[in-house]
Amino acid sequence: MSSRDLTIKGLFGCFAAGVTVVTTMDKGENPRGMTVSSFSAVSLEPPLILYCLGDHAVNFSHFADADDFAVNILSEGQQSLSNRFADASQPDWPTLAYRTLTSSSPVLDGCLGTLDCRQLSTTRQGDHLVIIGEVVDSDGPYTGAPLIYHRGLYLT
After folding, report:
1. 88: Cβ–Cβ under 8 A, 6 or more apart, which residues?
2. What is the Cα 82 distance to its own chain's centre?
3. What is the structure's pLDDT at 6?
4. Is 21 helix (H, G, I), strand (E, B) or coil?
5. What CA–CA distance (Å, rounded) separates 38 from 5?
């Protein structure tokens, strides 16, 4: 990585981001999940969100090809859950109970809220796939503080 790339990466890290776990069911009906901090609201009418999926993501094909997905917004007490879904060396799905809303995408307990989405479109930008979804159902918001990621560390 060049010094310019390291500078840009450092500057990107200056932006504090909330942490989510995006979940879906693969074509074999197996639950999949990954930690995502590049998430944003796009529109209220209709309710649209986006998240960015890196080309290097272990579950890339499962999310790129998904018909639907859920965005689980983590609370400050869920750092271990964030770490679990960020660790590519772990099995695809931990031994976690989950439920569903309108779609079959897993909804994790203890989150500040969950957005159940239908995938609308994808667009390739650099080394990421930008995925846009329409919110078809939701759960929450619940009280509490969000899990925040900044400069490679969790903040509380």
Report:
1. 58
2. 10
3. 67
4. strand
5. 18
